[in-house]
Amino acid sequence: MTSRSGESRRRTVRLLGLVLGAALLVPLGASSPVAAAAGRAVPGAPVATCTAPTSSAKYPALPVAEDPAFVTNLSLPSVAPGGSTSISFRVADPAGSGGPIADVVVSFEVYEFNGFPGNATACLPVADAPVLVNATASGSFVTVALAGLAAGASEVGSVGVVTSSATPVGTFAIRTAINFTLGAAKYRLESRGWFTAAEWADGTEAPNGSAILNLSDLGNVSGVVPETALFVSPGGWDVALAALLVGGAALVGAGAFVYLRRTARSSSSSGAG
User: Fold this and answer.
1) N or C of the chain: less Cβ packing under 10 Å?
2) What would you report as the CA-atom Rg of the chain, rounded to the nearest whole angstrom?
3) What domains sit in the chain, N to C, each tagged with a CATH number?
4) Which DSSP category does 260 fall into?
5) CB 51 within 8 A of CB 195
6) CA–CA gap between residue 67 and residue 70 (Å, rounded)
7) Contacts of 244 (CB under 8 A, 6+ apart)
8) CA 190, CA 218: separation in Å to the nearest integer?
């Protein structure tokens, strides 16, 4: 039988993999999440600062080991200009959360564009950008409301994505968040795209340069969830974009290995609630 500590370690490793993967899948501008995480700017790329306004609400922290379970199976769609697709996902209430959770709302927002070729970044609005669609609304930002979930239960969902024939070729970064109520408290977990470069660096990198996840440095959030991106290319998957994904998989694996070695001596800095 798997021990609780062993499962907690695996969840923590998966979370770091999601964090690194999300960072790699967003555009490569000088102030984009990827460039900030790598500690370097892309020569010739314009500066783009696309973070959302900071919320004044205070959300209690959750155990970091639970974060990867809340939003999983987040798809990474590709589409040609003028086509449509969808982003699928699964929302779960981890058994360790003490659920049930109620008032579950998952948010999606297209927030940054990385043109291809050229690697220039831009914050939205971008002309003819993809439109997200839910059951009642459409735009660059949509939400999906789900019924309450019992501890250990899950539910699948999706949002539509529509492009026009004039939608530019490149990568559109899409940040995610999940809000819910547990007991009398309200919680919110956010993906990389909601934070500034400075906030993300403070919350995910120790003074010695090693990887951590410190929620107190990230600010008013309960935890971190993955984000996704939409690849727009006339031929579907462009060779360069496919190469980017291969590099992302390698980085995720390397990050997970490094963090596994450090888990036993550095997990206490995560700020469990």
Assistant:
1) N
2) 18
3) 4-270 (2.60.40.10)
4) H
5) yes
6) 6
7) 24, 25
8) 10
Longest dimension (CA), the chain: 55
The tokens 């379970």 sit on which residue?
69
Output DSSP code: residue 179: E
247: buried, middle or exposed (CB in 10 Å: 19+, 13-18, 0-12)?
Answer: exposed
Q: Is 121:189 a contact under the CB 8 Å cutoff?
A: no
Beta-carbon count within 10 A of 6 CB: 10
Q: In 40-173, which residue ranges form alpha helices assigned H by DSSP?
A: 67-70
Per residue in 124-158, pLDDT (tens digit) is 889 999 999 998 999 999 999 988 899 889 999 99
Q: How many CB atoms lie within 10 A of CB 145?
A: 13
Give the separation between CA 232 and CA 131, rounded to whole angstroms.
13
DSSP secondary structure code for residue 240 in this structure: H
Q: HEC states along 189-207?
A: EECHHHCCHHHHHHHHECC
At a CB cut-off of 8 Å and minimum separation 6, what does 61 contact?
A: 215, 216, 221, 222, 223, 271, 272, 273
Whether the pTM exceeds 0.85: the reply is: no
